[in-house]
Specification:
The protein is 13% helix and 33% strand. The chain is mostly beta strands and 255 residues long. The strands form 4 sheets. Strands 1, 2, 3, 4, 5, 6, 7, 8 and 9 form a 9-stranded mixed sheet that branches. Pfam families: Lectin_C (PF00059). This is IDD protein.
Length: 255
């Protein structure tokens, strides 16, 4: 039916062919941005991770993570932990540990059941109802403990040197929860629009990428049911530049 459609609809008055100029054509799009700026994405758990280096006690760190729709990080498997250990976290802010050995609050607590020479106890996920199944091995105990404490908080020690980092070397500490430390937050992957705004579930948005004329629905942190608009070239302008973040917006470069 293509010839019939062309003959009926592409003929203007006087039999002349009407010409349509499109600036861009919809192409398959790969969406690689699933976390806000400053967060690291791990496909295995569809999660985002960020280290905060400003130093807070455990309870303040919990609240900071909650404010960004996350929680202190827990891990489901060794693969997820290895991903965390392999990252090179930003070090611009003040850190509270040696640069070659940094420790982060994570979402576990060590419950002391017997105060003998070995400090018997066990690890628990800090928040009940979590589906996480990975629990740390026996910890190294921190130095700032008191006799009254029955619960200690988990710190994961990572190494800065690339060789040590990529070999997955690390340690687990059970530390006084009121000590100040950097901390690791974890949140579900999310939709991020072309202007780096976080998009809520079910809302329309334009994903980050090369096409500002794409409109998608956010579903489980992924853009779905995307529709692309095509733009007519600007009239009376020979040279122009497309705005990378606004659909069908151009800047004329003619003198």
């Amino acid at each position: 039916g293509k010839e019939n459609v062309d003959s009926r609809h592409n003929r203007g008055r006087g039999g002349e062919t009407t010409r349509f100029h499109t600036v861009n054509v919809a192409q398959p799009v790969r969406f690689s941005r699933k976390c806000p700026t400053g967060w690291h994405h791990y496909e295995g758990t569809a999660s985002c991770y960020r280290v905060y280096l400003n130093g807070e006690n455990y309870w303040d760190a919990v609240q900071t993570c909650q404010r960004v729709n996350g929680s202190l990080a827990t891990f489901t498997a060794d693969q997820e932990l290895r991903f965390i250990l392999a990252q090179e976290w930003d070090l611009e802010e003040k850190t509270f540990v040696r640069k070659d050995q940094r420790r982060f609050w994570v979402g576990y607590q060590y419950v002391i059941t017997s105060r003998n020479h070995s400090l018997e106890g066990h690890w628990e996920v800090a928040y009940k109802g979590s589906s996480e199944v990975f629990l740390p091995p026996d910890p190294i105990f921190g130095t700032a403990m008191s006799e009254k404490e029955n619960v200690l908080c988990a710190q994961l020690q990572c190494f800065h040197f690339p060789t040590l980092r990529h070999h997955g070397l690390h340690s687990w500490y059970a530390e006084n929860c009121y000590e100040k430390s950097s901390f690791l937050c974890k949140r579900s992957q999310t939709c991020v629009d072309i202007k780096d705004n976080i998009v809520d579930e079910g809302y329309y948005f334009t994903p980050k990428g090369n096409d500002p004329c794409l409109s998608c629905t956010c579903h489980n942190g992924e853009p779905e049911m995307c529709v692309a608009a095509l733009c007519e070239r600007p009239q009376g302008c020979q040279q122009y530049r497309k705005d990378p973040k606004e659909c069908c917006k151009f800047t004329c470069l003619d003198p």
